[in-house]
């Protein structure tokens, strides 16, 4: 089995962004992988708060999410609240060359 990797964007300044977005693709042709996406509000500079992650038409994601071969998933969190100044996206996934991640 695969050991897990953690991808982090690091703490990002919100600026004019309305959503924290994670695009994750399984470019493999055989295996389904379980992934977890976390979005953290770091605006207090300590004790970050985990925010809900959504998919599709504002549907809350149940983790771990099973990402099938040759599939893309787009997950997001609304960060329009005036209180959110800094955020981080983390993706926990099995170590594999078949997982491609782009976050912003």
Description:
The protein is mostly beta strands. The chain has one domain (4-103): Sandwich (Jelly Rolls), CATH 2.60.120. It contains no helices and 11 strands. Strands 1, 2, 4, 5, 8 and 10 form a 6-stranded antiparallel sheet that branches. Strands 7-6-9-3-11 form a 5-stranded antiparallel sheet, with no helix packed on it. It is elongated, with a radius of gyration of 14 Å.
- Percentage of residues in helical conformation: under 10%
The percentage of residues in β strands lies in over 45%
Distance between the termini: 29 Å
Please provide the count of β strands. Answer: 11
Q: What is the quaternary state of this protein?
A: single chain
Instruction: Label the CATH architecture.
Output: Sandwich
Reported for the largest beta sheet, the result is: 6 strands, antiparallel
CATH topology: Jelly Rolls
- CATH class term: Mainly Beta
Mean pLDDT: 95
Give the ordered list of helices and strands.
Answer: EEEEEEEEEEE
Radius of gyration: 14 Å
Quickly give the structural class: mainly beta
């Amino acid at each position: 089995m695969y050991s897990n990797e953690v991808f982090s964007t690091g703490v990002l300044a919100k600026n004019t962004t309305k959503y924290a977005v994670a695009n994750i693709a399984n470019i493999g042709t055989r295996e389904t992988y379980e992934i977890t996406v976390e979005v953290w509000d770091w605006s207090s500079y300590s004790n970050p708060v985990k925010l809900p992650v959504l998919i599709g038409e504002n549907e809350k994601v149940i983790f771990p999410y099973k990402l099938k071969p040759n599939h893309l998933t787009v997950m997001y969190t609304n960060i329009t609240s005036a209180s959110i100044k800094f955020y981080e996206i983390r993706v926990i996934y099995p170590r594999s060359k078949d997982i491609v991640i782009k976050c912003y």
